[in-house]
Amino acid sequence: MIKTLMKSIREYKKDTILTPIFVIVEVIMEALIPYVISLLINEIQNGAGVDVILNYGWKLILLSLIALAGGWASGVCCSKASCGFAKNLRKDIFYNIQDFSFTNIDHFSNASLVTRLTTDIQNIQMAFMQIIRTAVRAPLNMIFSFAMAYIMGGTMAMIFLAIIPIMGIGLFAIIKIVMPIFKKGFPKYDALNQSVEENVKGIRVVKSFVREDYENEKFDRASEDIKKTFTKAERILALNNPLMQVCIYGVMLFVLSVGSKHIVADGTLNIGQFSTLLTYSFQIMVSLMMLSMIFVMITFAQESSARVVEVLREKSTITSKENAIKEVKDGSVDFDHVSFKYQENAESNVLENIDLHIKSGETIGIIGGTGSAKSSFVQLIPRLYDAAGGTVRVGKEDVKEYDLVALRDAVAMVLQKNVLFSGTIADNIRWGNKDASMDEVKHVCHLAHADEFIDQMPDGYDTWIEQGGTNVSGGQKQRLCIARALLKKPKILIMDDSTSAVDTKTDAEIRAAMRTYIPETTKIIIAQRTSSVEDADRIVVMDNGHIDAVGTSKELIRTNQIYREVYLSQNKQGTESIDEEGKEALA
After folding, report:
1. 423-424 and 464-465 as β-strands: parallel, antiparallel, unpaired?
2. Is the model's pTM score more than 0.85?
3. How many other CB atoms sit within 10 Å of the CB of residue 460?
4. What angle do CA 289, 295, 301 make, to 5 degrees?
5. Is 104 exposed, middle or buried (0-12, 13-18, 19+ CB in 10 A)?
6. Residue 269: predicted pLDDT
7. What gap in Å lies between CA 72 and CA 52, rounded to an integer?
8. Residue 336 bridge partners (DSSP)
9. Kind of pairing, strands 411-414 and 397-398?
10. Which residue segment(s) compose the domain that 361 sits in?
11. What distance in Å separates the CA atoms of residue 23 and residue 141, rounded to the nearest whole number?
C-alpha cells in the first residue's frame, strides 16, 4: 500500500528528502541550547563577568537562529511536499477513473469516489506531513535530549527509558480498539455524500412532492450515524492525552524530588545541571506526546489510504491490445451469437444469442418494452462493456482488436440520459469536434433544430450552460446532444431514445437532416415511438434480451405481435398507409 502511494511523490522527492534534513539541523540546535544555558548558569553562579555572559549570549543567539532557519526551511519543504503529493494523488486517481470501463465504475458509487478524492486524500496528506516532519523530529529530539540528559544527570535519565514502555503499551491498546471503528466509519461518509448527491440532483422532485422534511430527516440520520461512530472513536483516542499527562507529570515529579535531594544532600548535582535536566525531561515528554499524536493521525489515515489505493490499483477491464487496429474502415456492425451480463457471477444473461448483421450506412431502428436490453445491446458496439460470449464486429473486425480511442472516435452516442457540461453552448457542441469552426457548429445546431432556441438566448452560442444543463429544458438538452454527435461525423451514430422529449414533427425533421448530412453513417435509433423508426431500413424488435423479429415497419405489422401491439396503441388513426394484409393483421 505504501509503495503504491509513494509513486505519487514524483517531482516532490527533493522537498520530501530535504524536510527531515532541515529537521535534524533544528533538533541538534534545540538540544544544544539547554546545554549552553546550563554552562551559562554555572558561570554566573561562579561569579562570571559581563564578557563571559555576552560570549554565551552570542552562542545562544546563533544556535537559536540556526534552529529557527532549520524549522522555517523544514516547514516550507514539508508544505510543498505534502500539498504536491496530495495534488499528484488526486490526479492519479482521477486519471485512473477516466480509464475505467463501465464495469469498473459499477464497483464504486459516485459518492464513494468523491469521498476518496477529497476527505480520504486530505487525511493522507495530513499523515504524510506528520511523517516527514514531526515523525522525524519527535524521535530525534527524544534521542538527543535523552543523550544530553544522561550526560548531565547520569542514571537519573533512566526514568525516561522506564516510562516509554508504559506509554507504548497504552498507545498500542488504544489504536487496536480504535482502528476497527474507523474502518466502519468511512463507508458512512460515502452514505452521507450519496444522500447529499441524490438530494441536490433531485431537488426539483423533492420540492414538487414537498419532501424536504423527509430529506432533512434522512440527512440527519446519516449525519448522526457518523457522529456516533466517530465520537466513540474519539472518546477512546482521548484516553491518550491523560496517559501522556500522567507520564509527563510523573517524570517531572521524579526529577524534581530526586534532583533536589542530590543538590541539597550530597551536592552531586549543580543548579545548571538540574535546570537543564528539567528542560530535557520536558522535551522528551513533549516528543513522546508528539509521537502519540502521529500514531493517532496515521491510524486515522490508514483506512483512508486503503480506500485510495483500492481505486489506484483498480485496472480497467477493457484495454487496447498491443498493435491494435488504429482505423475503423466502415460502419458495418455484426453481432455473432452474442451474449452479455453485467456481472460475471450473474445467474442469467442480459442479452442472449444476439445474431444481427448491419450494413455500413444502414439505418436500424430498435424497439422493445422497458427492460428488453436495448441500451445494453448498443453499448457493446463502442466496447463500453465487453460481450460475455460471441463476437461483436465493427468494420468487419472484432471490436477487441481495435485501439479503444480509434473505435470510440468512430462511434457517437446520444445517450438516454443526456449530459451537458458547465460551459458555453459552443463549448458543449465542440465536444464532437474540438477544432470545428463556428459555422460548422451553427450548421449542426440547425440540423438538430437547436438554433430555434439558441438564437432567442441573449448570448446565443456563448450562453453559459450550468452544471448538468439545469438551465435548459429536456428537449433543448436532447437537441444540443444530437448536434454534438452530428458534429463528430462518426461512422456509427447511436441514438438511445434521444428524441423522446421532442415533438414528432421535429423528430422527423431531425432524422431527415441526418440522412442528408451523414448519408454514409450507420444510424442505430432506439425509440419508444414507432414513428421514430418506421422509416428505418430495418427495425429490430427486442424482448427480454432476445431479438424477437427483424424487418421493415410494414413487415412487422403483419408478422410480429409485439410491434403490431405497440403500433396500434400509438397509431389508432394512422393505418391508411398500411397495405391490406397489414390491415387484416391489425384487425
Report:
1. antiparallel
2. no
3. 14
4. 140
5. middle
6. 63
7. 30
8. 391
9. unpaired
10. 326-410+520-587
11. 10
**Does any domain span residue 493?**
no
Please list the ranges in the chain whose pLDDT falls under 50. none
Match 480511442 to its residue by C-alpha cell: 405
Residue 380 is placed in which grid cell?
457493446
Q: Which three cell numbers stand for residue 467?
A: 452544471
Query: Cα–Cα distance between 200 and 221 in angstroms, integer?
Result: 17
- Residue written as cell 442472449? 352
Helices (H), 497-560: 504-517, 553-559
Written in H, E and C, the secondary structure of 408-461 is HHCEEEECCCCCCCCEEHHHHHCCCCCCCCHHHHHHHHHHCCCHHHHCCCCCHH
Q: Record the cell numbers describing residue 238, joined without a space.
A: 482521548
How many Cα atoms within 13 Å fall on the side-chain side of residue 263? 14
- Residues in the chain, overall count: 587
What are the grid coordinates assigned to 296, written together?
493517532
pLDDT at residue 331 in the model: 92
Between the CA of residue 357 and those of 82, 482, 564, what are the distances in Å?
56, 25, 23
- Predicted local confidence at residue 370, as pLDDT: 83
Question: Which amino acid does the sequence have at 229?
Answer: T
pLDDT at 23: 92
Q: Is residue 544 left, alpha or beta, with left meaning phi > 0 and alpha meaning psi from -120 to 50?
A: left
Q: Is residue 149 part of a domain?
A: yes
Q: Which amino acid is at 51?
A: D
Looking at the structure of the chain, the number of domains it has is 2
pLDDT at 208: 78
CATH number of the CATH domain containing 85: 1.20.1560.10
> What CATH number should be reported for the domain holding residue 531?
3.40.50.300
Q: Which residue has the cell 554565551?
A: 56
Q: Among candidates 410, 378, 405, 415, which has minimal Cα distance to 395?
A: 410
- Residue 185 resides in a domain: yes
Rounded CA gap, 519 and 408, in Å?
A: 20
Amino acid symbol at 238: A
Are 285 and 360 members of one domain? Answer: no
Q: Give the whole-angstrom CA distance, residue 274 versus residue 37.
A: 11
Show Cβ contacts of residue 380 under 8 Å, excluding neighbours closer than 6 positions.
Answer: 335, 338, 340, 351, 386, 387, 392, 399
Closest CA to 429 of 412, 405, 406, 411: 412
How far apart CA 430 and CA 433 sit, in angstroms, is 5
Residue 424's nearest CA partner among 459, 464, 451, 456 is 464
**Rounded (to 5) percent helix, strand, coil in the chain:** 65, 10, 25
Per-residue pLDDT at 584: 56
Residue 267: count of CB within 10 angstroms of its CB = 8
Q: Which helix (H) or strand (E) holds 464?
A: strand 464-465
Q: Which residues lie closer than 8 Å to 514 by C-beta, 6 or more apart?
A: 447, 486, 493, 521, 523
349 and 373 in one domain?
yes
The reported pLDDT for the residue numbered 94 is 92
Calpha distance 105→138 (Å, rounded): 42
Sheet holding 538-543, edge to edge: 411-414, 492-496, 522-526, 363-368, 538-543, 546-551
Place of cell 543523550: 147
3: cell is 509503495
Q: Are residues 146 and 250 in the same domain?
A: yes
